[in-house]
Design a protein that fits this description.
By secondary structure, this protein is mainly α. The protein has a single domain, classed as Substrate Binding Domain Of Dnak, Chain:A, Domain 2 (Up-down Bundle), CATH 1.20.1270. It is built from twelve helices and no strands. Helix 2 runs parallel beside helix 6 and helix 4 runs antiparallel to helix 7.
């Protein structure tokens, strides 16, 4: 009987303390909102927290853009394949040089290793975002601990509880600041691996086709076209040596864009062997070659801006 009374008394005391604590926290929150109670200074932590959230937003933005690029690449290769089929159907009118075009040799991104590389990069970025988001639990716990400490300091009678709350709050703050500093220190390399994977995939798809976009002679464009009775107004005027040198230098512009990544053909061959045949550039569809120049330039610039 006495044991039952003691348990009942302990339960009542615990409920009373819980209700008092909730009322104390609610009162503190209302007073701070009304400006009648001042919260302890937290500006230094809030500045670090803002930088952490800004970096998290940046990583999420990269994640969204990589996913968009992956979808766009699938659409691009599908439409380029359709363009190649249309050109192949009219190859007799366009010239015998296109009659040997094998549209089935064009890689499909839906099943080849390019999409696998982009998917792997996406998976890695998603995992890193999830890892950063898990710190939100500790951030909310610290905010609750700060409110607890401020409310206990307002109630001057709870000195012992305030000291214990202060120690716990300090530990939580130091732990989070350590995490923020770690992310700040590795910002420049945090997504380096994933962006390199994206760059390798795009290079394997576009670079060889873009390098073969220009034709040097009229025979290369229409090898079977008659050239004997060409009107004077339509004659091809040979370029002088200076112009030819300028055009050769212009063709080197796109590979120079990729030189910043220090990519080589050998580095892409083992990873993306099904997407790029170094020994047979004739498999690249002319429509793909033409459109790739404009697309790959914007892609390279976007990746460069993201890495900065």
């Amino acid at each position: 009987m006495q044991t039952t009374k003691k348990e009942s008394s302990a339960t009542t005391s615990t409920l009373a303390q819980t209700l008092w604590r909730k009322q104390r926290l609610l009162t503190q929150e209302v007073l701070q909102a009304m400006g009648k109670a001042h919260a302890s200074d937290d500006s230094a932590f809030q500045a670090e927290l803002a930088k952490f959230y800004a970096f998290l937003a940046h990583v999420r933005s990269v994640q969204a853009h990589v996913e968009t690029q992956r979808s766009a690449l699938q659409t691009f290769l599908r439409t380029a394949r359709q363009l190649g089929q249309a050109i192949a159907n009219d190859a007799r009118e366009l010239g015998a040089g296109l009659q040997s075009l094998d549209v089935h040799s064009i890689p499909s991104v839906e099943n080849d290793s390019v999409d696998q590389v982009l998917a792997a990069a996406m998976s890695s970025i998603v995992a890193k975002v999830a890892q950063m988001e898990r710190h939100e639990i500790a951030i909310r716990a610290r905010a609750a601990a700060k409110l607890e400490l401020d409310s206990l300091r307002r109630v001057k009678k709870a000195t012992a509880q305030a000291n214990a709350a202060s120690d716990a709050f300090s530990r939580q703050t130091l732990d989070l600041l350590h995490v923020f500093k770690q992310y700040e220190a590795c910002q420049e390399t945090f997504l380096a691996t994933e962006l390199n994977m994206v760059g390798l995939a795009l290079r394997a798809v576009f670079l060889s086709g873009v390098e073969a976009t220009t034709c040097d002679t009229q025979e290369e464009i229409l090898p079977d076209a008659p050239h004997d009775a060409v009107p004077a107004s339509l004659e091809v005027i040979p370029l002088d040596a200076a112009m030819q040198k300028q055009q050769r230098q212009r063709r080197k512009t796109l590979p120079q864009l990729f030189s910043k990544y220090k990519f080589t053909r050998r580095s892409t061959k083992p990873l993306l062997s099904s997407c790029h045949d170094e020994d047979n550039d004739d498999n690249n569809v002319p429509g793909t070659r033409f459109l790739a120049f404009y697309l790959v330039t914007s892609i390279v610039r976007a990746i460069e801006q993201t890495r900065r």
